[in-house]
Amino acid sequence: MLNTLSGRFLILTTVFVMLAEILIFVPSIARFREDYLADRLQRAQIASLALLADDMLETELEAELLENAGVFNVVLRRDEIRQLMLASPIPQPITGTYDLREAGAMTLIRDAMLRMARPGNEIIRVIGAPVRDAGILIEITMETAPLRAAMIDYGVRILALSAVISVFTALLLFVAVRIVLVKPIKAVVGYMQRYAAAPEDARGIIHPSSSVVELREAEEALMQLQTELTHALKQRERLAQLGGAVAKVSHDLRNILTSAQLFTDRIEMSEDPLVRRLAPKLVNSITRAVSLCEGTLAFGRAEEPSPTFAVVSLHEITADIAESELLAAGSELVGIVNAVPKPMMLRADSEQLFRIVMNLVRNARQAIIATGKPGQITVDAREEEDAWYITVADTGPGLPKRAQDNLFTPFQGGARKGGTGLGLAIAGELARGHGGSVVLKETCPEGTVFEICLPKGDGTI
């Protein structure tokens, strides 16, 4: 009960209402004391008027009038003359005088609280104004025990009533909170639990129905989250299935390429000069294809393997890429310029660096061929104090808006029809493995420029 929202709201409401009643209780007690003393003054005035009507009251009658008034003596001031109208023996000295004619609210509250705090019986003098202007002032002497007892009795009744009001108010609010807040919140929690049990089932998605603005906003936000998560899970499942299929294809393709490697020795022994010149390229291409298949299988199991750093010649890598891509293009539309300085050496994984640059060059080649117009790809590089920078620039048609918005996102960043967008995703991942990055520097109808950054780190060449 105490751990529920409605239970805590019930307790807090009761406490707050009680605090409000206590704030009302203090001035109420002060007001009760003032009325009590005013009543005693009024009774004393009536008794003194009886004496004025008959100056010869018997002693027994005078004592009865004083007892009914609850006072010991009465002093009435009329026409500047102060008269002791009624008198009886005072059992003990007077301990205080209270003038009700000019007492402010704070004074009345202070005197009332002090009286409640004093348990003994004292004799006090009270001064007030006679009712109906029957004189200038009236003064009485009385004991405090009956006053304090009446104040305590009144206070107990006030507190009891306050407690009843607090509990009743809290119960009403408790019921209202359960209907307005707790029940809708439990419904939202129920939707969340059902969705958590089967997130792929679209029937578990919440349908906003609350009339409370805040709860309605929460339901709408939850519905959007559940919808996006359901779509993401479906996409993940499809990607997992695709990954399994790719792993199987890579496994079989690796076996085929491994068999093809066995025949490359015979090709190298050919007497044809063209075959002898192209045979090493074929061997390298098959070796890289086998390595790629093995890397794909490793990626399916975990992540891209960590790079093995070595000092490599970037010019040789880009020259190999240029020759391979020109052969693959089989067209005079594409020209590849290797502008990398020949002496330039850098620290990287040669195979992974080959794949990074090759993916960018291949994307550029395919984009130029798709236009049917001649174009050129330029690979350049520069060395700075903290990093090596490799740029791949082309004179192609530029990247469309969709491709720019989904760069490096597999299956979404493809710039051409039928493209998968895997090239940039692979290049970006391999560059991050080197501690670097691949960024789009520029794209427009006149061409596109990508830049690869490979930080030097603490390594030396």
UniProtKB/TrEMBL annotation:
Q: Which SMART domains match?
A: HATPase_c, HisKA
- What keywords would UniProt list here? ATP-binding, Coiled coil, Kinase, Membrane, Nucleotide-binding, Phosphoprotein, Transferase, Transmembrane, Transmembrane helix, Two-component regulatory system
Q: Which GO terms describe its molecular function?
A: ATP binding; phosphorelay sensor kinase activity
Identify the enzyme class: transferase
Transmembrane domains' residue ranges? 6-26, 158-181
**Chain ranges of the Histidine kinase domain:** 248-458
Record's keyword annotation contains ATP-binding: yes
Q: State the SUPFAM superfamilies in the record.
A: ATPase domain of HSP90 chaperone/DNA topoisomerase II/histidine kinase, Homodimeric domain of signal transducing histidine kinase
User: Record's Pfam families?
Assistant: HATPase_c, HisKA
Q: Which residues form a coiled coil?
A: 215-242
**Entry superkingdom:** Bacteria
Under catalytic activity, the entry for this protein gives: ATP + protein L-histidine = ADP + protein N-phospho-L-histidine
**CDD domains reported in the protein's UniProt record:** HATPase
Q: What is its EC number?
A: 2.7.13.3
Recorded protein name is histidine kinase
